[in-house]
Amino acid sequence: MGRYIIRRLIQAGPVLLGATFFIFATVFALPGDPVAALAGDKRQDPNIVAIIREQYHLDDPLLVQYWYYISGIVFHGDFGKTFAGVPVTQLLAGKLQVTLNLALVALTMEAIIGVLLGLWAALRRGRATDTAILASTLLLISIPTLVSGFVLQLWLGVWLKRVTGTEFFPISGATQGLKSYLLPGFVLAGVSIAYLTRLTRTSLVETLRSDYIRTATAKGLSRRRVIGRHGLRNALIPMVTYLGADLGSLMGGAVITETIFNLPGIGFQLYTGVYLREQPVVVGIVTILVLVYIVANLVVDLMYAVLDPRIRYE
Amino acid sequence: MRVTKGAQIVAGTALLAVAVAACGGGSGTSTGNSGTSADTPVRMELGEPQNLLVPSNTTESEGAEALAAIFEPLVNYDENKQAVEAAADSIKSDDNKVWTIKIKSGYTWHNGEPLIAQNYVDAWNFAANQENAQGAGYFFGRIDGYADLNPGEGKKPATTQMKGLKAVDNSTLQVTLTAPFSQFKTMLGYTAFYPLPKAAFGADGKVTNEYGEKPIGQGLFKLDKPYKKGTDQSIDLTVYDKYPGKKPSGWTKLQFKLYNSSETAYNDLQADNIDIHDSLPASAIASAKTALGDRYEDQPDAGIGYIGFPLKYNDQYKDVKMREAISMAIDRKTIAETVFSGTRAPADDFINPAIAGYRQGACTACSYNPGKAKEQYAAANGPKTLELGYNADGGHKEWIEAVANNLRANLGVEVTVKPFEKFASILDDLDQKKYKGMFRMGWAIDYPSAENYLTPIFSTGAIKTGSNYAGYTNPQFDATVAKGDQAPTAEEGLKFYQQADDILIKDLPYIPVYFYRNNSGSSTKVKNVKINLLNQVEWADVEKA
Question: Could you list the residue range(s) of the whole structural domain that residue A99 is in?
């Protein structure tokens, strides 16, 4: 088990290195001049452009630039700087926390609401409740985050505050603890909640038809135990797989939600990083995302063993 | 069972992370509505400053707005758009070449040191030196000795001082220009000309990063804590006790809240979560007028938008009659009111209404006249196809498409609209003479003088060093502007600038399409919010409602 985890983590090394190079090269290949992008509608003094280009090694070939980047990390623990002179580590430390909070709030909501709704629908299969849940998830899937974000912000942020005089859901910023994340978390999780509900329902419906469920019922176990212990647990594997993979996409896909709710997370930073061609920022963020995917996948694989005793890792 | 236990720990850790993260979010400062009204800050929307808060490296509006609260400029601008002394006691010159600036007594830095003339010398020498790669370095280009600090690419300057800059005594600064410039006083209100205290410089003579995070100024507000760019969601300030000028009454704290989206900030304004929003999004203008009522403000902004021609290498656009025809075919009013929802005004001069020297209707070819346009275009034998380029990253697509439709409908020509991904890509292609079509162009002033709409964009010298992307050159224009620069007073200079403006209107190297407007709103909690020529709030006048 321990060995298995170590082996998986060692395998992650080359993946990370490959990812950094790939992203570095992609940003390098973007057209336009990163220094000129800083200037807006004005022409910059060519001397100053030359000096900035030299400072950031922008005139060197791709491999040389990449070497500066990697050797900075390996030998000096220096992850590079933005064009404004802010170290990338300092920049990302705070932002990563915000995005991680947002993604975890979203994931928690997704897991709780998705599983409960799915369970409810599966148990009422074919009845009005089931149809209503399926219809509402369809609605949820078809509303883009951009729309749901602004609409909920206006209803629950602006109007509700105006009517009640109390701020239940902050419109913007991440300064009010968990409260700040509830609305954006829900908006971010929206589509995933719908998918997870449907996945849970289908998976559970299928499991409940199995022979061992009939056996369990025939043994005289309580309905609660049959569904909880024998049904849900066996139905969980595809749901856990989905949730694990979703953590990464929630973090990576948070750019719209973060912008609408003005959360200072990595999503918007990634966007500006790409726009300004700030390689250290883009590579830093993407590497973190790759790491999140790797760890989340590992956790998912380990969860399999918990859920299904037949699975063992050596 | 070994396996299961290990996995349980992993799963537990993951859950713990959820809990920790949820708690972690609470550590930030609370912006709840608690506390008395004097303690509650006046809160204003701001975009994230592009750079650290160093005046000489701040050439964009957001950083400039923050710095304007912290620093006192040498001059401010009054209601007649004229420069009036602020931190300066007097600014005088006999020949417009050697300027003597007396500094008012009573100003101190936020660390207690007195403000002295040497602070200006140090700041300006640092800003102008090419080694320091400061974005606003070019502002000092008119000062004698600038060339010594900017010997060119790959060369090191031999000195660190401009010879035209001298602190005669603690309160007297003497500035010698390379050539007379009547508008010099007007320039001095801009961010780049703020002084810097001794504490700003490190052992190597450069402005330190620590200073950029917590600038010490000599203005109305001082920073409460360092601003960590990229991490902090607000910039918090308190009125500086020893500030000698007018202070706001009834409140002492100011907070800039940083937003990525002006729509979100507008929602916060409606919910009274912020008090001032000075860049309302076009999407909100219609509703803002009714939702905010008299708390909505609409005033001229000094920016201007053009359609440009690559005159220097494409003879296709050589005929001025044809350029006039294109100009008359553009329905500026509809573009300003419909496409931009009133956040723009139709342009009718090369000089913006926010600035002294603007003459309403000066540009006759700027009025919409489709009939005459078609006739004149045919007579000038204009090309059957036109190309119109714009940068796709700045919200220009809609109005460029509208212009293209105007030209198609009114001139009966084919128009191809070409998106470039960034403004810089258009400039690159123009530099390399690769792009032959018309292009979208814009200008935001550096200092509020009519001259700033002329020299940097249309003078022959600006082809190499400025923003003359059209490659327009007219010796008569250059000479008229030079006469304005050498005029004994700013007012007399203005007459020459208006003559130069007339030459532009006749030659039409660019077509002025729209003037920017500044659309701002305030909450129910504040009143008397005034925004000045530089688009900055006059804080001393703001009152709590």
Answer: 89-307
